[in-house]
Amino acid sequence: MSLAEMTRTDSPAPDGAHPSVVEWVDDIARVTEPDHIVWCNGSPAEWDALARQMVASGTLTRLNADHRPYSFLARSDPNDVARVEERTFICSATPEEAGPTNNWREPGEMRATLGRLFHGSMRGRTMYVIPFSMGPLGSPLSKLGVQVTDSPYVVASMGIMTRMGTAALELIGDRTQWVRAVHSVGAPLEAGQDDVPWPCNETKYITHFPESREIWSFGSAYGGNALLAKKAFALRIASVIARDEGWLAEHMLIIKVTNPRGRVFHVAAAFPSACGKTNLAMMQPTIPGWKVETVGDDIAWLGLGDDGRLRAINPEAGFFGVAPGTGISSNPTAIDTIWGNTIFTNVALRDDGDVWWEGLTSTAPDHLIDWEGKHWSPASGRPAAHPNSRFTVAARQCPTISDDWEDPQGVVIDAIIFGGRRATNVPLVVEARDWEHGVYLGATISSEQTAAAEGTVGELRRDPFAMLPFCGYNMADHWAHWLSVGQRLRKSGTVPRIFQVNWFRKDQDGKFLWPGFGENSRVLEWMLERVDGQVAAKESPLGLLPTDDGLNLDGLDLNGAQVAELFAIDTEAWKTEADATEQFFATFDGRVPEAVQKQLAVLRSKLG
User: Fold this and answer.
1) How many helices (H) and strands (E) in the chain?
2) Which of 190, 264, 265, 289 holds its CA 20 to 30 A away from the CA of 83?
3) In this predicted structure, what is the pLDDT of residue 245?
4) 43 vs 166: CA distance, rounded Å
5) Strand spans (E) along 425-520
6) What is the widest separation between alpha-carbon atoms in the chain?
7) Residue environment code for 487-524, b if the CB has 16+ CB neighbours within 10 A, otherwise e
8) Cβ-contact 96, 87 below 8 angstroms
9) Any idea what DSSP says for residue 568?
10) In the beta sheet, which residues pair with residue 391?
């Protein structure tokens, strides 16, 4: 496909396009007034033409093919580098529906604002129509959407992150409910006006209309602001659909674990940022006989299968990973995944035409071009790569990708893990006593502030279910929905066990007590041996803990005092934490489910 064909004026809708899609695209075009309309088919030729177009315009730099085959570097505008949570809105019918953890705007008021912003926003540009499937094509757990955008970078990224193109479009029929997603960088071009490599707008809105299943994003071309299939659809809108239809859309990785006896388990795990999520998704176990494979690294959709068991799919087709801190020592699997066919955004460029970022290697090169296009050396006193720089790569390139990662029926979930970054209080691993206790553990996930610049040291940053920025409705209602799913599981099938982990506990000198990374497989071993009925546990005020000899510590340089500290429970500190949890629950104005409140009371009674 030539560039001329890619940019033909008002290309007709494909023959298989449903009238509801065609009419909607026409409506958006009348508002945004693009010069051209292109319906994306998702072919490799189309992707290649887009990449060539962006190289020609300066949006992408092609990397040295000898080092990184068919890969590209993008540098964003310095004011468009991350999700803008303060500009992210849930436009439900009432503020109570959105809840205190979301930014709410009255739907009619927001539509009026968006109408003014989007009027003529695509003048001088091409509007691309992107039909896509979240999840394997045709899976009963998958959902369909159509995004329009005036950013070729977004089109190329969506081609990696979703099942995008004609095959998805043809699945939209008379009875199909599909999500409508509108995106514009908000930078119309007048006749003769020169474009810039990364157009965007200082005004930004990422808005969600849960009742009508719509997403409208304006002003940003970056990541979760613009790849609307990702956080906006797969979590914020999908969480509402899931509540209405009886399933779960969660910020969770999924892994397949095989033990030395050949039994296969599948585990879903929720972690806030900077808590080891990607490392767990791509873990290389250090203990003999255990194998971990990747199903998904970020999002899980979980529902009851025909067999009554909880099953999950990874709705995404790619990884949109944070680059800094990802290296050969910390995550060799990720490094092997991005060998080529990858878009890197806001990382540094080496003199040999490859990329670099902090944590990739132990020593920085003597000279780089940094993420802003400036000369850089180790003496520069600033990061070479932006802290939120990213890589976008197809999941199928991951060397540990599981053979069932695209199973249309989903994989059976045997265990669920919640975790946060806690220097104190929370033990290395705790098993929930039952589903209700597990929901309480998920509702109270938190991480401690680690530096005065981030806030008061030790202050808890709450992130229930690791969904704080992503739940599309009232968080307390989300907990109630989890409880209802548990009730259905009890009636129809096997209930997964729930655990809490904390890899980040420190000693009095501020050093991590647990080695982490691949050694976390030892904790995974204990949890799955519990699922398999092979090891015992002992009761504690917080839940079930490993017995004194229950955790495999062979070969680790840990003394008895350090192990004791990993599981120590400070009663007075936990009483203080219980008070803080009560205050947190009070922010939901009486909507916290009784079963969750009861778990807080149980904790207090066990603390004495």
Assistant:
1) 17, 31
2) 190
3) 97
4) 9
5) 429-431, 446-448, 460-462, 497-501
6) 75
7) eebeeebebbbbbbbbbbbbeeeeeebbeebbbbbbbb
8) no
9) -
10) 321, 344
Q: What whole-number distance in Å separates Cα of residue 361 and Cα of residue 335?
A: 11
The full 3-state SS of 443-508, as one line of letters, equals HCCEEECCCHHHCCCCCEEECHHHCCCCCCCCHHHHHHHHHHHHHHHHHHCCCCEEEEECCCCECC
Q: Which of 415, 417, 411 is nearest to 532 (CA)?
A: 415
pLDDT in tens, 80-129: 998 899 999 999 999 999 999 999 999 999 999 999 999 999 999 999 99
Which residue's entry shows tokens 């019918």?
93
Three-state DSSP at 481 gives: helix
pLDDT in tens, 207-248: 999 999 999 999 999 999 999 999 999 999 999 999 999 999
Say which CATH topology domain 249-316+404-607 has: Phosphoenolpyruvate Carboxykinase; domain 3 (3.90.228)
For residue 310, which of 588, 498, 173 has the smallest C-alpha distance? Answer: 498
In the β-sheet with 411-412, what is the strand arrangement from edge to edge? 248-250, 300-304, 310-313, 411-412
- Give, as one character, the DSSP assignment of residue 19: H
Give the domain 3-52+85-246 fold: Phosphoenolpyruvate Carboxykinase; domain 1 (3.40.449)
- Token output for 538: 């002992």
Positions marked active-site: 275
CA torsion through residues 479, 480, 485, 488, sign: positive
CATH 3.40.449.10 segments of the chain:
3-52+85-246
Structure tokens that stand for 487 in this block:
């009730």
Dihedral of the alpha carbons of 570, 572, 577, 583, in degrees to the nearest 10: 170
What is the SS3 assignment for 595? Answer: helix
| Exposure string for 386-424, b = 16+ CB within 10 A, e = fewer | bebbbbbbbbebbebbbeebbbeebbbbbbbbbbbbbbe
CB 542 within 8 A of CB 269: no
Residue 188 has pLDDT above 90, yes or no: yes
Per-residue pLDDT band for 10 (boundaries 50, 70, 90) equals: low
Domain(s) of CATH 3.90.228.20: residues in the chain: 249-316+404-607
Task: Report the alpha-carbon distance of residue 597 to residue 579 in Å, rounded.
Answer: 12
For residue 84, which phi and psi values (nearest 5 degrees)?
-110, 85
CB 281 within 8 A of CB 253: yes
State how beta strands 143-149 and 178-184 pair. Answer: parallel
**pLDDT given for residue 218 in this prediction:** 98
Tokens of 387: 């802290």
Q: Alpha-carbon distance 263 to 251, whole Å?
A: 26
Q: In this structure, what token pair is assigned to residue 46?
A: 């189309």
Query: How much of the chain is helix, strand and coil, in % rounded to 5?
Result: 30, 20, 45
From CA 53, how far away is CA 55, in angstroms rounded? 6
The residues pairing with 115 across neighbouring beta strands, listed in sequence order, are: none
